[in-house]
Design a protein that fits this description.
Largest sheet: 5 strands, mixed, barrel
CATH class: Mainly Beta
Strand order of the largest sheet: 1-3-4-6-5
Radius of gyration: 19 Å
CATH architecture: Beta Barrel
Helix content: under 10%
Shape: globular
CATH topology: OB fold (Dihydrolipoamide Acetyltransferase, E2P)
CATH superfamily: Nucleic acid-binding proteins
Number of domains: 1
Distance between the termini: 29 Å
Number of strands: 7
Order of helices and strands: EEEEHEEE
Length: 159
């Protein structure tokens, strides 16, 4: 299984481009992910390159900027190429299937995440807040029987 989930802050603004043949959007950015702190050591970080494709790439380019906190879910992809000196350079990237915006839009502070597909904050007990993004109406079909609010269960928890 090749699956990765990361939370970090953008180290620089995202870069959007389009493939020459199919004109597919591709957005690349780097996030800084904190390493676990050991006693007596400074906090370190890993800088991980992220690649996002399609509509989500355009959304990331539009709404993300340096310092913004994101959660990235995807897969690791390795590769290599020869640089100008003829030396083989090995690469490791995360190809994102999903990017969620965390915190506030100013690169810091507190806030809640937003799903880049639905443009809504995650549902907690049926309560959501519209964020100004829009998704096709058919994306929400089949949820008519969902309760409006969370009902606490009175049963004892078996664990």
């Amino acid at each position: 299984m090749n699956s990765v989930i990361l939370i970090g802050r953008l180290a620089r603004d995202p870069e959007l481009s389009y493939t020459p043949n199919t004109q597919s959007a591709v957005c690349r950015f780097t996030i800084a992910v904190d390493r676990p702190r050991r006693q007596g050591e400074d906090q370190g970080a890993d800088f991980i390159r992220i690649t996002v494709w399609g509509r989500q790439a355009e959304t990331c380019d539009r709404y993300l900027s340096k310092g913004r906190q994101v959660a990235v879910m995807g897969r690791i992809q390795t590769g290599s190429y020869k640089n100008r000196e003829g030396v083989t350079v090995y690469t490791t990237d995360v190809v994102a299937d999903r990017v969620e915006f965390l915190g506030s839009g100013n690169g810091g502070g507190q806030g809640v995440s937003r799903d880049t597909f639905t443009g809504r904050e995650p549902s907690f007990g049926g309560m959501t807040q519209d964020t100004g993004f829009s998704a096709p109406q058919d994306a929400f079909t089949g949820f008519d029987d969902m309760p409006d609010t969370f009902q606490a269960a009175e049963d004892d928890i078996p664990f």
